[in-house]
Amino acid sequence: MGPLVSYHKKFLLFVYQIILFSLVTQCYSNEILGCGGFVKSHVSLDFSKIEIGLYTKEGILKEKTECAPTNGYYFLPMYEHGEYVLKVHPPAGWSFEPSEVELVVNGETDQCSNGQDINFAFNGFGITGRVITAGQSTGPSGITVQLVDNNGQVRETISSTGGDFHFTPVIPGKYTLKASHPKWKLEPAKAVVQVKEGNTALPVGVLAVKGYEVVGSVSSFGSPIEGIYVLLYSKVERQKFRVEGCNTALLQGVPDSPICHSVTDASGEFQFGLVPAGEYKLLALSKPPGQATISYNIQPDNVPFTVKHDNIYIKNAFEVSNLKVILRK
Fold first, then answer.
1. Quick one: pLDDT at residue 4?
2. Which helix (H) or strand (E) holds 109?
3. Which one, of 323, 259, 256, lies nearest residue 288 by Cα?
4. What's the rounded mean pLDDT across residues 177-198?
5. Within 13 Å and on the Cβ side, how many CA atoms surround 8?
């Protein structure tokens, strides 16, 4: 039995060597297929925070790897031919060009099969912000916002609904934001931001519109009437933000304590130049101050209105139905 067992062992060892040789030969005759390249940047980045993913055309993740922390190199093995998408996955706010690359891997003519690098270039980070109406959490659209770098180069955008704006890509550095509008007064209208790494979100309130113009008209049987005193009152007893662009002189004989007043001009219009967001009402005096002999019949008694994120025009806010002249004896 001894010689027979020995024979079987030698035979099995021989078969094992044949199989092993075949596998080794196959490995060396076919190089490992895969896609590789670099994530490149003109500024210092922690490349280890960036991942590269290999997806099927249908969006199924096949392989994923981190980039080398020192030089941004990556390599993803590929086990079969087909259509793929190579995507870069940076932290939030990091912008790359391209963000993804479509591949048709056939083992012969494509970039991966030919060992060509597929690179992704860093563009910059992002700045997001919002121009608010003073005292509110949102703001108006149409505000011009400029981004100025240390070299004086200017980029410009316009705030969208709610006052939101953004700049991207933005490389790390120190910037100044300036907000402006042809009609509205902004305060604060400037902010300094330091972009370091990732999206930079500005705190709410660093750019704000102080208030809006409120204009209205007073008429009498369809014709404008001049010299009517219109008083402005706030629903809030202690107004946080100051109304500007109206007359604050004290008037005798007026009800309560108005914020300020305006007098209609030749076109019958009154104007309050800067009214912060809030709830208000208007009241027109039936007797002009210092003219005790004149009295108007004015309707309605008061006009409530709300200021949000835009100018207000109140057409025919008051109607003067007749004029009384009181004769003194």
1. 44
2. none
3. 323
4. 94
5. 4
pLDDT over 90 at 13, yes or no: no
Alpha-carbon span 224 to 36, nearest angstrom: 77
For residues 143 and 140, what is the distance between their CA atoms, to the nearest angstrom? 7
Distance of alpha carbon 176 from alpha carbon 196, whole angstroms: 14
Distance CA 58, CA 251 (A): 75
Where exactly does CATH 2.60.40.10 map onto the chain? 32-118, 124-209, 212-325
Pick from 113, 118, 109: which is nearest to 36 by CA? 118
* DSSP states along 140-181: -S--EEEEE-TT--EEEEE--TBTEEEEEEE-SEEEEEEEE-
Query: What distances in angstroms separate CA 200 from CA 59, 94, 195, 206, one per listed residue?
Result: 30, 11, 6, 13
d(CA 260, CA 275): 11
Higher confidence at residue 31 or residue 10?
31
Instruction: Provide the whole-model pTM.
Output: 0.71
Q: Which residue has the tokens 């259509």?
A: 83
Rounded Cα distance between 90 and 265, Å, is: 61
- What is 212-325's CATH number? 2.60.40.10
pLDDT class of 21 with cuts at 50, 70, 90 = very low
Considering the segment(s) 32-118 as one domain, its CATH architecture is: Sandwich (2.60)
SS3 content of the chain, % helix, strand, coil (to 5): 10, 45, 45
The domain defined by 124-209 folds into Immunoglobulin-like (2.60.40)
β partners of residue 147: 155, 177
Q: What average pLDDT score do residues 166-184 get?
A: 94
Residue 223 to residues 167, 281, 286, Cα–Cα distance (Å): 50, 23, 18
pLDDT of 325 reads 56
Pairing of strands 212-220, 312-325: parallel
